Amino acid sequence: MCGLAGLAGADAVRHHTTVAAMGLAQHHRGPDGTRHLTSTDGRAVLSMNTLLIVDTTAQPGPYQDPASGVVLTFNGEIYNYRQAAAGWGIQLEAGETDAHLVLRAWVKLGPGCLAGLDGMFAVAAYDPREGRLFLARDRLGEKPLYWRLDGGRLAFASEVTTLTGYGTAPLVVRPEMLSIETPTGVDTPFQGIQLLPPAGLLAFEIATGSLVQRTWWQLEGLEPWQGDYRTALARFSTLLAESVPLRAPGSDFALLLSGGLDSSVLAYLMRPQVCVTVRYQGQDRLDESATAAVVARDVGAELVVIEPTAADFARCLPEIMHALDYPMGNAATFSEHMAYRAIAERGLRVVVGGLGPDEFLMGYVRHALVLFGPQAVLDAGLEAYRPLASKLLNAAGGPLDPAEAIVKLILRGSDPDGCMREVVADALRRAGGDLARGLTLADLATAWRPLVMTSDKLASAFALERRSPFLARDLVEFCYRLPVEHKIGDPAAGKRILRDAAKALGIPPEVWGSRDKLGFASPVPSWLTGPLEPWATAQISAALDQAPRSLRPLLAGGLRPGGRFDRTRMQSLMAAAWFNDQPVETAA
């Protein structure tokens, strides 16, 4: 998984011990070595936590090019690094990996090399020839990268708590934390600390202290797919066969196998040695372990079944919040944490999961509700989603416009300033009138961030590398270009083209024919109004007594009664655990 940290400024060399401490603060991300390196001109110090996956004999980073003096620290995987090296005429020696390819490509091409990289990454490169520090992040933000500017120096790290240790950063409750549980855009709940956006490139000039940011890749502007469905299916199946297996490591790895469509397709294409699924006693509605067992048997994998309890959640919540850095609105957080723990205990280093198809191929019920209307979704047999559909059914004055409908479906709290309304409206504008594309862009601007961030942070806490094969560049771009009818055939059958590809792979009908989406959802919200109610109330009340004024409305919301599907109490409890994990001076 790796981690990176560093500092750039005119006097950076004087702060090398600070950078060393920053690296040690996130050593769990790279158990194979934490090192730091000072540039030849003394104006940048870079640290790297190394987790060796591609070549276990490789030298830990950071890395430096002797001729140019360029220093680079890196987190992630470049899956096409050998092909890119050949295309750029870059020679890789024995024991050199994708990080060495990125270093040499940066020396040769500068930031222009990013377009040729297919993978997940966060990278920091200092070029003494220009006196500039560059920060860059992968297309969809799989790898986090935070930064802050202070006193003419720019500091950065893989984890926001590493930067709160660099200097005080008071808590700030962003409006979106009340709306969708997670900050959006580049904001964090720490004053002065920002998250580099997906596909973001930042250049910091040491001499002047100036910052320039731009986006080096975007989905907008891609030409729509013009072929018929049969041709599209053939192309999609080819991309799956080429892209997904490329993301399997050479050593043993585990697959998060919910029993649903996405993870099952990965199982048949990647043939993992171990599959891990999660189920909860007495929660038949959430249990897909029987289907997972069929898939694991078909691909010859060992199936590990995790059965977490309410007591496990109470015990693990502090660990989860410490790993996350701040609250994130992902309903599968607890399930993922328990799965990663089990995988790490087996001595594995790589875990694979199925992020992506839901966002790009209209896999969420909320997509169908917007595209077809609530009554059509209920009539298609998805009665279990009536509480969600009722947000639109009860709208007075006729059908809502798409932006208003999307906002109603994604909100988990209030939106008094219309922040979410503007985020969604902007996504629809950028989609150029294609509602399916607009739904994808709205997801990427709201719900996507907590999904990829929790996957990275929770896995990294156990020194695991998390891979998401469906996020291959060519696959993502192709899915985005498809017309809506190729993505969803009827209100209860999103991901149409993936379902048809699954049929061709020989995946059982109970997988590709399922009309419900469960994933790794957990019964935690119901526990908080049941067996864990006294404990949760005590946790929230204790935090409420000490919390700053800005955080109190968020906490107080969890003390009010809510319905079966209300996540307010869960949101409040996560905020309480987050506040309790903060140093006293940070929360003042």
Molecular structure report:
This protein is 41% helix and 14% strand. With 588 residues, it is of the alpha+beta class. The protein folds into 3 domains: 3-215, Glutamine Phosphoribosylpyrophosphate, subunit 1, domain 1 (4-Layer Sandwich), CATH 3.60.20.10; 236-522, 3-Layer(aba) Sandwich (Rossmann fold), CATH 3.40.50; 524-580, no CATH class. Strands 2-3-1-9-8-10 form a 6-stranded antiparallel sheet, covered by helices on one side. It is globular, with a radius of gyration of 23 Å.
**What is the top-level CATH class of the largest domain?**
Alpha Beta
Strand order, sheet with most strands = 2-3-1-9-8-10
**Secondary structure tally, helices:** 26
Our count of domains comes out at 3
Write the SSE topology.
Elements: E1 3-8, H1 16-25, E2 34-38, E3 44-49, E4 63-64, E5 71-78, H2 81-88, H3 98-109, E6 119-127, E7 132-137, E8 146-150, E9 153-157, H4 160-166, H5 175-179, E10 194-195, E11 200-205, E12 211-215, H6 229-243, E13 254-256, H7 261-270, E14 274-278, H8 289-299, E15 302-306, H9 310-324, H10 333-345, E16 350-352, H11 357-360, H12 365-372, H13 374-379, H14 386-393, H15 402-410, H16 419-430, H17 435-445, H18 448-460, E17 465-467, H19 473-481, H20 484-487, H21 496-504, H22 509-512, H23 524-527, H24 533-546, H25 552-556, H26 568-580
Parallel strand pairs: 13-14, 13-16, 14-15, 16-17
Antiparallel strand pairs: 1-3, 1-9, 2-3, 4-5, 5-6, 6-7, 7-11, 8-9, 8-10, 11-12
Write a short abstract of this structure.
The chain is α+β, with helices and mostly antiparallel strands and 588 residues long. Helix content is 41%, strand content 14%. The strands form three sheets. It has a six-stranded antiparallel sheet, with helices on one face.
